[in-house]
Specification:
The protein is mainly α. The protein is built from four helices and no strands. α3 runs antiparallel to α4. The protein starts with a helix and ends with a helix.
Amino acid sequence: EIYMLKTVEYIFDNILIKIVRAFGIISGVILLLMVLLMTAEVFMRYYANMPIEWEIDVVENLLIASVFLGGAYTVSNEGHVRVDFLLNYLPLGKKYMLLAIGHFGGLIFMVVLSYYLTGDAIRSYKLQEMTSGIVPLPYYPIKFVMVIGAYLLCFATISKIRFYVKERRKSPSV
């Protein structure tokens, strides 16, 4: 039974790592697309006197997509901002315990956010909600991207908490 559980954990972690990495790459490509679109807008507006009317609405949605799809990658690679000068002076076991507690707090927030984002995305789809920009765009696609990113961040955070708990148990300061 324990062997089976470890196998399931191993498979889960490997699949999660691949998905998180793929979404991290997608997030980076979205950022590149945003830069290209904004550059095209500047060129078209100032040099051709033909602004791209829908550019700002699309860039706003791309920014949201990039943040939500890249969140799990950031957590998995410990790329988020944190003040760790106090953590560096703690014994390893205590450091891992505090990191796990901090991530658990973040997980609670993300679970609640994911729940409400899901309801909002479904509502937006049912109402066929549109942006109020010059060129109306549907809201629900970006809201479903937010839902996917939020749930993926939950899974990545759970994986990180498991990692910290395992490392704490291996630490000599426990």
